[in-house]
Design goal:
The protein is globular. Strands 2-1-3 form a 3-stranded antiparallel β-sheet, covered by helices on one side. Strand 1 and strand 2 form a beta hairpin. It has 65 residues and is mostly beta strands.
Length: 65
């Protein structure tokens, strides 16, 4: 299973909490998100798992958006 994220963005009350994140994760590879509290790691994971709606960008999992 591969994942491609292009220009992912999310804003809350006009403030960008995720701004233009892009990454390609090849099949059988892992990714860790590390950052200080409030940096947006949980928001990115929420968007990837579709619990949070993204404001912009593309999320492609195995060719499906």
């Amino acid at each position: 299973m591969s994942m491609v994220i292009k220009e992912l963005s999310k804003k809350y009350v006009g403030k960008a909490v995720v701004d233009s994140i892009s990454v390609k994760i090849p099949e059988s590879k892992f990714l860790s998100l590390i950052g200080s509290s409030g940096a947006g790691e949980s928001t990115v994971m929420g968007i990837v798992s579709k619990f949070i709606q993204r404001d912009g960008g593309v999320l492609n999992l195995n060719g499906h958006t």
